[in-house]
Design a protein that fits this description.
It contains 2 helices and 38 strands. The chain has helices at about 430-435, 455-460, and strands spanning about 40-45, 50, 55-60, 70-75, 75, 85-90, 95-100, 105-110, 115-120, 125-135, 140-150, 165-170, 175, 180, 195-200, 205-210, 225-230, 235-240, 255-265, 295-300, 305, 315-320, 325, 335-340, 345-350, 355-365, 370, 375, 385-390, 425, 440, 445-450, 460-470, 475-480, 485, 510-515, 530-535, 550-555. The strands form 9 sheets. A 7-stranded antiparallel beta sheet has the order 7-8-9-10-19-16-15, with no helix packed on it. It has a 5-stranded antiparallel beta sheet with strand order 1-2-3-4-5, with no helix packed on it. A hairpin with a 2-residue loop joins strand 7 and strand 8. The radius of gyration is 26 Å and the shape is globular.
Length: about 550
């Protein structure tokens, strides 16, 4: 018995599709072995739709709420820990769930109010393709969690292991007896740094291949939780909007596909990765909000001049509806960004993570918008300004400062962190490595920088700059130079949630400037001038949750 391929199918207690769907499907994706597709199809066990991909994967989707309730690969059940299923957010609740089969594709559709979610299976593949569409904020966040049973994979990234005896912050950051810290938030990677996240035993791999994130928020350098393991199992995440440390408003619309992929132990096939994955087979499935490749355009640039070749450059596109990015070629700055929804975007050129050029670009469906060489003005890169002294590098990150690398996978209280104090003397040669990446009002406010000036330098006013990458609780620097005290600067717009303590320095880059008069300097050139940096704010609590900020660079201009 067969059904119309695009009509929702009611509950049936027998297999549909089967042999009729088999045999013609091209094998694609990371297959564990050359399995027969003769069993491809679906059935109804009363509570779930049961989908057999005809390879080595059988999965179940709850007919009541759209949860993924079973994930069996090569006869082993991988789904489930803590009595929870895999699902959007933390589970949607009562939903309308339907299933259709169209040739070699099975689509399960989940409707929960204005949210639409989809699972697709292809004959002969060990993959589940997922789309999630949000029309509004009626669901608080957008993420998908694959919940994996304990003991199936080794924990090869221990800093994200969430179980430890002592809770030290918000019930999600822990300390071990040896003083090391653990949290599911400690992901190390930015979105731009990974295509797939998962685990492998060497013979079986389970991964989430991320989507292109066009409807996510935060850009290419956003950091969020990716995976964790605890005593009762593990989780793999596709985070589209988490509401934590977000630098942009939430975007709405259809996001995907992202892919749950089983492999024979290796990483998933690169044909599944963002930018290379093609889903023409999904064009006619009726997925709400789906835009095929023919409805998208491309932006290409012949090059970028004015670059500092010591840094990687990224080109980003963003508007309220979508975001995209791509690398600029190291040799000449050439870039190409495809799969872009039609519209007008702000194009931003990033040196490292620091925006150094913006312009507007319009994308049309089925066409490539070609840009002539983009010239980054010298004045747009703060590193080009002549400085009497400089600590750090102007790249939009705290890289090089003390504890900067550790802070992407540890809490500031971690025993592995060097002391957060860090007074420095200019001219010693290790100023950046000695200066803390983060400054808090209640931890290490009042850092001192000692420096000498020549008579000519001391006779003139100078501009002092402090670049930051984010701030918590409106923390911002007030400076004192010898006996001269700056005014308190206004706080820039920054995320309102935790950042510095959950593995992320990514907020909105901002530069504070202070016009220091000549009268502030010491006239005795043999003496050190003293710069004091205090964090000020009326918000925050205590210790590492007091008002704080992350440092990009600081310098005194000539």
């Amino acid at each position: 018995m067969s059904e119309s391929p695009n009509r929702p199918v009611r509950r049936r207690a027998f297999v549909l599709g089967g042999a009729a769907a088999a045999g013609t499907a091209a094998l694609a994706g990371p297959l564990a072995s050359a399995a027969s597709a003769a069993s491809f199809g679906w059935s109804d066990d009363g509570s779930n739709y049961v989908v057999d991909t005809g390879a080595n994967l059988v999965f179940k989707v709850s007919k009541s709420n759209g949860d993924l309730t079973s994930l069996v690969y090569r006869g082993t059940e991988y789904q489930g820990y803590g009595g929870k299923n895999s699902h959007v957010e933390s589970g949607l609740g009562a939903s309308t769930v339907t299933i259709t089969q169209s040739g070699t594709t099975i689509l399960v559709s989940v409707a929960y109010g204005t949210l639409k979610h989809y699972y697709a299976a292809r004959s002969g593949e060990n993959n589940i393709y997922l789309w999630t569409g949000k029309a509004d904020a009626s669901v608080s966040a957008t993420r998908y969690i694959v919940r994996v049973k304990a003991g199936l994979f080794l924990n090869d990234e221990p800093d994200s292991y969430t179980y430890a005896p002592t809770v030290i912050e918000s019930a999600d950051v822990f300390a071990k007896p040896d003083g090391q810290t653990r949290s599911k938030h400690f992901a190390k990677r930015r979105v731009i740094d990974y295509a797939a996240i998962g685990w492998t035993t060497g013979s079986v791999g389970l991964y989430i291949v991320r989507s292109h994130h066009e409807k996510a928020s935060g850009g290419p350098f956003y950091r969020s939780l990716l995976r964790h393991q605890s005593a009762d199992g593990g989780g793999l995440y596709e985070i589209l909007y988490y509401g934590e440390n977000q630098t942009e408003a939430e975007r709405f619309g259809l996001q995907g596909p992202y892919v749950i992929a089983f492999t024979d132990g290796g990483t998933p096939s690169s044909s599944l990765y963002p930018g290379t994955l093609t889903t023409t087979w999904a064009d006619s499935l009726g997925i709400s909000g789906y835009v095929p490749a023919s409805g998208r355009g491309r932006v290409a640039g012949v090059g970028i001049s004015g670059r500092d070749t010591a840094y990687a450059y990224t080109v980003g596109l963003a508007n309220p509806a979508a975001q995209y990015w791509g690398p600029a070629r190291a040799s000449d700055g050439w870039f190409s960004i495809g799969g872009v929804l039609p519209g007008t975007y702000t194009l931003t050129v990033f040196k490292g993570e620091l925006a150094v050029h913006t312009t507007s670009v319009t994308v049309t469906a089925g066409a490539t918008t070609t840009l002539n060489t983009i010239a980054v003005a010298s004045s747009n890169d703060p590193a080009n300004a002549s400085a009497i002294w400089r600590i750090g590098t102007w790249d939009g990150t705290p890289a090089g400062f003390k504890n900067a690398d550790l802070m992407t996978y540890a809490h500031p209280s971690d025993v592995r962190a060097a002391a957060w104090t860090g007074n420095v003397v200019i001219g010693g040669g290790s100023e950046t490595a000695s200066f803390p990446a983060y400054i808090w009002k209640d931890v290490n406010s009042g850092l001192l920088v000692y420096f000498k000036l020549t008579a000519a330098q001391a006779a003139a006013a100078h501009t002092l700059r402090i670049g930051v990458t984010t701030a918590y609780a409106n923390g911002r620097p007030q400076v004192t130079v010898n006996s001269w005290v700056s005014s308190i600067p206004s706080p820039p717009t920054q995320p309102s949630t935790r950042s510095l303590t959950v593995g992320s320095y990514r907020g909105n880059n901002h530069t504070f400037t202070y016009s220091v008069p000549a009268s502030a300097w010491l006239t005795d050139t043999s003496q050190y001038n003293v710069l004091r940096i205090d964090v000020v704010s009326g918000s925050g609590t205590t210790s590492y949750l007091s008002a704080g900020t992350s440092i990009d660079a600081l310098d005194l201009l000539a």
